[in-house]
Structures
1.
Amino acid sequence: MMRIPSWYCIGMLMWTGAAAAAQGQSALPTRVALGAQQAPLARSEPAAPATLHGVVTDASGKPLPGVFVSALGSDSAFAVSDDEGRFTFRELSPGEYLLRARLRGYLQQRERVVQVSAGGQRAPALHLTRSLEAGVVTASVGGGGTTTVAEPGEDEDQHGHDEVAWRLRHARRSVLKEAGQAIEGLGEESSYGGSLASLSRAVGTPARLASAFFAELPLSAQIHLLTTASFERPEDLFSSATTAPHGVAYLSVEAPGASGQWTVRGALTQGDLSSWLLAGSYVKQGPAAHLYEVGLSYGIQRYLGANGEALAAIRDGGRNVGVMYAYDDWTVSPHLEVGYGAKYARYDYLEEPWLLSPRVSVAVRPSMRDSLRLRGTVSHREIAPGAEEFMPPSFGPWLPPERTFSHVSRASFRPEQHDYLELAMEREWAGGVTVGVRGFTERVDDQLVTLFGVDDSQRGLGHYQVGSAGDYAANGWGVSVRRDVGSHVTATVDYSRARAEWQRVSADAETLALLATSVLREDEAIHDLTASVQGVVAPTATRVLVIYKVNSGFAQQLAEVDPSSGVRFDVQVNQALPFMNFTSGRWEMLVAVSNLFREDLAELSTYDELMVVRPPKRVVGGVTVRF
């Protein structure tokens, strides 16, 4: 059971009472970032004050309402034109955007590429013309050979619009039809001509519906063609000490709608480690009382290499992981917001494969005239060893499983159990500065340990070992400061201090003492300072993300070395390639270098990143096409 200090309970009761008495005039913004559990570092977005507006007309200049307009560039934005054909995109990141307009029965004359800068600006008018398929050629009934053109919707249920239906309608009519005689055995309603019409509907209608569905569905997509490799020192990139670079193909398809957005993502890599990931999600869009997100993912890892330890650890040559999740942000009143949800996962390499991770949070805004927000969060996480190889990241390059792992003492894999309670407050001040303060307590059973190359540096880049350091309880506090620097850059600094008390040493302690004794801890204080910068260079449409983490308790490689201060980092650069926009797609170049093992800093225990010994640096490069 978690040991929760009394001041946490008192604080939670006070906040619950304030929430019950709160009455207000406007809704709380969703997903308020407070403390480490809300990922102020990894998920904060740069300021985006740019606004783009325009109008959609037909060939004669008449405004067209109900047109779906998309803007693809640094961001993906969508709007629907009003009765006067006008549309508006707000909060766009500066840069180049490709504008597209879609309306059933119409074609866009020309796709527009516009440069969006800070402030508001007008887009060139978008012109649509009627599609050639809007009219349907039908045969006259009188047999005179004349034809008429039917407008869309006319006789829609009686005539198919594909080639097969057209040929059936223009085929020579039999004397049986002219005499009005029915074909024997088909009944009065199934004469020769009637059977042709039925066949036309049977063949034409499904094909027409399918083609219309995909033609009118407002889809946008991204294709990433990447190459990734791992190294320890920069000079290793030019030697055999690095892992062999391998390619990764990634595809993302989004289908936005009026009430929410569907997203499907997939990634594939081949080599001695062949693997793929597939994920789908649906996100409800506001304004609404319930803003929910549901999704699932499935990943497979198969190893065909020569590493005997990896072959022995992987059952039947492969591993399979499936995850389902659902979260909801419920705005009860303008002063009160409740978040709840859970993640349910199955790891086939665990003895007990099913893991459940629920989470509940309560956010209170005491006064609508003040930006002060209070939040309480309670969560339980069950983390499988090697889970980071199968879980889609919340940001950054999306890579399928590319490393193998085994147990350090050849025992069964044990998941980490993480119970967490946090109380936090956040307030915005003058000058675009947001300050947050939090207090937290946590209890962890079977804290995970990850070892890279402690006995074989060559193998360690593509294979690692996992184990358990034992159980501990920790209490601590933290302070975060976030500021918008200019109109395109957001900087965040987060400091935390935790006091940990170790309560049980795991069964892996004897083996870990021989490989990296610094993962076996005693009671200690941990200091962490993490800084991040996110920004967009407007003239060149360059997006930059830098995360720099300094901590006093990183585990060391050698057995005789105690934990010490160290640095981990993540740098990502996306550069638009304007000279490549010779098609309807938008091209970008991606370069990323990181030695952070855990990708989502928002849901980590105090020791999750600290217990990763000798993590290699990973470099990712390639191109991205958005269309």
Note: Residues 6-44+219-626 form a domain with the Porin fold (CATH 2.40.160).
2.
Amino acid sequence: MLAEVNDHNADGKLAIRMGTNITKVLRKEVDPLHLMFGQDDLLDHVYEQVVNLGDLPAFQKSYLQIVRDNYTDIRVLEIGGGTGSSTAAVLKNLAPISNTTSSSTCNIRTYTFTDISAAFFEKAKEKFKDYVDIMEFKTLDAEKDVVKQGFNMASYDFVVAGNVVHATADLRKTLINLRQLLKPGGRLILHESVRQDLFWSPVAFGQLRGWWLGTEPMRKWSPFISVPQWDTILKDSGFSGVDLNLKDRDSPDVHTQSLMISTVSEASTISHLEISSSETVIITSRPLSEGHTDSVHSLLGHLQDDLGLSRCRVVHYLDLATADLCRSLCISLIDMEGIHLPAMNEEEFVSVRQILSICKGILWVMPDLITNPGCAMMIGLLRTVRWERDIDDANLVSLSISDPTLSLGEITQAVSALYQQQFQQELLPEKANGEYMFKDKTYFTARLVESHNANEFLETRFSRPKPSMQPLSTAGRPVKLATAAPGLLDKLEWVTDPDYDQALGSTEVEIDIKAVGLNFRDLMIAMGEHMAYSMGNEAAGKRIYPVFDPANLK
């Protein structure tokens, strides 16, 4: 059966190759990426097979023919271009080239081929050299701010995503970024696997870390989701939902892939809370209908008056569960208001997780950790998220207010001053800290400081002390001649003799040495040519123990 699966198609061959090596991968004896990419072009065939699966080629051709007949001067962007399988299918139908036509006369103005890495670009440039007039190649991480990566908002008519969006951690965040690239009325051509119950893909790609990035509960075991779930997430992200679902096969039993078309609405209305990139968000746990509490009102005044932040917003933390905070700076007061991590229910934790996973930066304010030890769990969570988002340049900072005598004004002033330093100034590396405590009107932060006494203590336990020059008479302990590096005569040194205080054996005597001779044997020991206990085996002296008794001569 395994032989039949292996010979059936590229998917089968990949599943058998990865499955038979899974033990070695788990033992870290084999790199799964090498199995996929390092041996042959099997993965190219897998992707080509996905693009040309069942009825998809015919449906895609028909749809793109309609687009070609109704649009001119089209700007297309493809994310995750990779090996170019999706690119080839789109260009073949949207901009066909024959002997009498060229890419310069087609109705595509530009086709922007992107990937998270430029590693595929050279191969793609060679593969699509006939489209040199319209092709451009750029790196793009769809999970990050697209503007900061050099892309203009609302500048593309179509975004093509072939089996790539599912490989991102947060589907809504990725789709919101893609929506920003599209013009009003622009369309997303989304090709995705829609089955979680078929296991040849998990056997292969489940051995890669990227398979498990999904943060949504429905993607715990697989990054794929169904078409109805895509419809919901697309609508949440500012799209019209699944306008058109083109299936690879009509039978639900064998249907695995869908080509979904979705549109950006003219007004681009998002169903969840929209946060402007220029806003500073103060996160509170108090119902907004009750008005601002004194602490929130005081902090708001400091940010607006002292720091000149004209766009500040107070938001209840449960309203941020689906908000786009990827360009927002936040100040959380929920710990100060008594909502601590250990007591949160699932809904509350999901909101906090969303904030920490997406926000550009946050200042998490909390009370004294000694009197409120439950707050220390947030320190641990922030450390974990900071490590997981190390490539995002996310600035996640905690501030513990550990002085009970501070007035409300002094607390808000401390928060505002730290916010200004951490988020409004270019920080030197030595000032870029993640954890602060404010006490006695002073900011304290953890530092790594060299402890000379501790270093010396550890050296005596785990390494030999460095030799130093001194008169032999001042050693104050029994010593013997040894070498620290056999073969180097300048490494000869006197070391403590551990055998000196041992009791003599029945056949041993103790001699008070008066003269020692070094011979060729000692030289060979020093040179590492001969292994022996010590040097200086030729000596002359007086026997001192046991006392010599001439009667023993008989």
Note: The radius of gyration is 36 Å.
3.
Amino acid sequence: MDKKYSAGRKARYSLIVILIICLIQAKALGQEVEENEIDLEKIVVTSRGAGLGLGQVSENVEIIGQKEIKQLPVRDLGQALDYIPGVYVDPGPGFDHPSSISIQGSDSRQVRVMIDGIPLNTQASGQVNPSKFPIENAARIETIKGAASSIWGSSLGGVINIITKDTGTTLIPKGNISGSYAGYRTQKQNGELSGKVAGLGYYLFASHMESGGKGARDDVSEKKAFGKLSYDLKELGKIAGSFGFSQGDVNSGELPDGTWEATPYRCQYGKLGWSNNFEGVDLNIDLKNSRQDIVTKDFDNISTDVPWQIIRSKDVLYQVSIVSAAHPRGKDLLIVGMDSDWDILKSTYLTKAKSLNLQAPFTNYTLKLDPWHLNFGLRYDRNSEFSEDLSPSFGCVYHFNGLPATFVRANVSHAFNAPPLLWKYYDESLSGLAVNPDLKPERAWVYELGIESQPLSKLWLKLSLYRADVSDAISSTTNDQGQWIKKNFEKFRRQGIEAQLKLQLLRGLSFFSTAAFNDVENRLTREIVKDTDSPRQSFDLGFEYKHKIGLSLYLDGRYNYWNRTYDIFQPNDKKFVFDFKASQKIKNFTCFMNVYNLFNSGYWADYYFPTPRRYFEGGVTIEW
């Protein structure tokens, strides 16, 4: 019998046995667990820049909390984002190297990624590699699908904001340490500590990860740290500061032509903020900074340590953000704010450093007229390199009184998305790429419609539709000399549908599923746009089980059809890849085991960079 087939069959039998045991335990013990209820009062910060209940937000929002993150079989932010419905992480070359993020058919540069509101998108590529940033320090992840330009700007695809854990409140420190080991010679250690001394609250985090990868020159070594301090000034308000740091050496493994790449990086980001309340008006002033140094070293063959080419880029951002929030009539929400950015970019592809500045005042008003919630937004972007734009938005939410936890939301917004600065100025003699100094920003009208409902106490449903008509859409093409060039096209249309379901089968055992379809079309030629960062079709299904004795089981399978060019990428992607996690908490100890690619699926979006075959990870966490 074929060994791979035998191993796959054993894995399936093992999974079935585990699920049967779960069912028996759930029925026999009759433990009490929380029902699957929609928490419409759950506070969303990212959608308005200030707290607003989930049931009052007209945008399509997903929130993953700290408890949900702990359930997932993940080691970094990139892996965690891949579990959010409608968010797709395209794996890059090498073992465990996520490279780009997409939301609902968008390009990765159209997704704004932030940590505590600190922008991380660079002016070199416009995108963010999420694997550079930790997941353990996240209190929750808030995702807005679709344009959110009335608050954030340059976010045609959506916004992802990682909100970190707060500072401690007790004199005796609380914290944890964790260690794990996995296949491909992978190991990770991390720890957290929080408390409060003499009115000064603190939170500290550090981690280290190493992996040998699947083959030669496919190793990874990363160090990450994060710290936060806060101090209450009584009637003078509150000050808080945070600082994050990531450093890594990431190697690509052998590329199709026998070469390999090393991409060491160094990221630091932070902010210092002051907040106070003046007769019912909340005022927040934040000074933000990020610096990302990225190096690409190209090597002729797998046996050499001397690069034939080194490409460097340094991206520095300074931002001043002022946001005030008031509550007219005691229940409405009025937001008035201003962002002022200064970006500096240095690159091997530039003869000299380039910079841009941005000023963007914005306002947003949420009017509560039960059962309606109406939202009006306006943002003005003045970009020193890419012109200016006015972005209005309108949204509404309607709650059905006769149906429990059921509401419809709709949103229309105008979006402005500036390309990265490098695309406009890179030197052709240094890069070998054709430059387009006349590159214009993308503008779009985005339409969204959705419904969420919990018709039964154990059944939750969500359906979302979207369409984005993008003018001056930017994509890659070749010129008359056969060189790649970034070019504006007359109009692209992105549209799609997304459906979600969660069903509680028994106490503690739930089934969940998501299906999505994304279509990107060149409206001038009526051709489907291929090789985007987002799959054309995707499905997600799985089970989660929680027991009051501390046992937690999580199984998730993802299916993506990436719509790649067959003769170039030769994709083998129309199949499910399942991951599994089991954890058991006993007092202050938690043991866990992750199984990646549980059924040993031969999957790849790019023929030369297949997903690793099945491997295991085991670890323990000690809390105090």
Note: Residues 3-29 form the longest helix (27 residues).
4.
Amino acid sequence: MKFKVGDLIYDKDFPEDGMALVIEVRKVDRRYKHWRDNNGYRCLETLTGKTNWYTVGYIEEECEWAKTDNKCPGLSGSKG
């Protein structure tokens, strides 16, 4: 799954590692044989506060969008 700047994501196999905010996306030539190995996503890690580059393969194959529920403050459907 492709992500865009502003998406909040997490590793679906290791959710305890926290979430990350996508802050930069590099365009990768997907015709290249090893395109999955290119660093294509720069993320801000919520647990450490550090930014790191991650490979396209890792982010697009091992991560998911963080989902919100109806109890999240600020959502129109919130019932507090």
Note: The chain is about 10% helix and 30% strand.
